[in-house]
Specification:
single chain, alpha+beta, capsid protein of prophage fold, seven-stranded mixed sheet, five-stranded mixed sheet, 14 strands, flat
Length: about 325
């Protein structure tokens, strides 16, 4: 007589199901942090204005003679025109009834993460496109970048920091901002000059714990969503990365009041929390199974979606620098 074994009773043996879901991998979504923010209501566009400065007076007054009037300062304007972005997923009644996971809750989180990643990517792309371009190691174009000669280093930071100062850029809350890829920071830690300066300016325990701090009055932020140009460097085989150097009021962002995304990652420079746990869509739209009317007569479909309103413009390209460079992973 056959034994009762795993083969004969396979339909009755169930896999234990772990209700805790694994965390999804997300980058630090930080590119939105430092923009000049404005919220619109009952208006379609936002106009930001700036008066030009007057030049220095280098001639002395002549006794009894009124000098010529100064030229009136000019006004430059930048217009932000927020556009709408969104996405949705459909779920069925059978999935809602039969799925072990809480699909509504989990799908809402996934869409919220997508909303955050979308806005962060839109912001990053606009900054990269409209910033002042610079190149590591004296290169003059992306196609000149090679790992041998243009790996991100302390001298790059030094040059861009003093370029911002020469352009009269102001720090943001006391510091300039550097945003770059983790691999680029890895290259910095290969530079003994950087390590020495960094260790002197930052809490001595920071470097041991792997946290990024500040150097030359610059806060260093890392995000794997930093811009990368695959195979764009020398000989078409070197990946070129970007490091953004930001001053105050270098860019502005705007959106409609009820649909405008805020800071997508509220973690500070020394915080390494899972961004996905913080991101939420601005407007989460849930349509229940019974909301379709005559288009869904058997109540078979529902939906979950998000919608935001967003625009970003660079206000002064002299106060934001995009440094193209190679790093430790460029030739991988």
């Amino acid at each position: 007589m056959a034994n009762l074994n795993r083969s004969s009773m396979s339909t009755g043996i169930k896999t234990m199901y772990e209700m805790r879901l694994l965390s999804r991998a997300l980058p630090r979504l930080i590119h939105n942090k430092w923009g000049t923010v404005a919220s619109l209501s009952n208006h379609g566009d936002l106009e930001l204005r700036k008066y030009s400065s007057l030049s220095a007076v280098t001639s002395s007054l002549t006794e009894g003679t009124t000098p010529s009037e100064q030229t009136q300062p000019s006004i430059s304007t930048v217009t932000l025109d927020p556009e709408y972005y969104g996405a949705y997923l459909i779920f069925t009644d059978e999935i809602d009834l039969e799925q072990t996971d809480n699909m509504i809750l989990e799908t809402s989180a996934i869409l919220g993460e997508q909303a955050g990643l979308s806005i962060d990517t839109l912001t990053r792309n606009a900054l990269i496109t409209n910033a002042t371009a610079a190149y590591s190691g004296g290169a003059s174009a992306i196609t000149d970048i090679s790992l041998a000669d243009h790996e991100f280093n302390y001298e790059d930071i030094l040059k861009q920091y003093f370029t911002l100062q020469a352009n009269n850029a102001r720090p943001i809350g006391g510091s300039f901002i550097i945003v770059t890829h983790p691999y680029s920071v890895g290259s910095l830690f290969k530079d003994p000059v950087f390590v020495n300066m960094f260790n002197n300016e930052t809490d001595e325990n920071k470097i041991r714990s792997g946290k990024i701090g500040r150097i030359l009055n610059c806060d260093i932020y890392v995000s794997s969503n930093s811009y990368e140009s695959a195979n764009a460097g020398k000989s078409g085989t070197t990946d070129v990365y970007s490091a953004l150097f930001l001053g105050d009021e270098s860019f502005g962002r705007a959106g409609m009041s009820t649909l405008m995304p805020g800071n997508l990652d509220s973690g500070g420079v020394d915080e390494w929390t899972n961004t996905g746990k913080q991101v939420r869509p601005v407007n989460l739209i849930v349509k229940d199974l019974d909301s379709g009317g005559s288009d869904d007569p058997l109540n078979q479909r529902g939906s979950i979606g998000w919608k935001v309103s967003h625009d970003l413009e660079v206000l002064n390209s002299d106060w934001i620098i995009n440094l193209y460079h190679a790093n430790m992973a460029s030739d991988d």
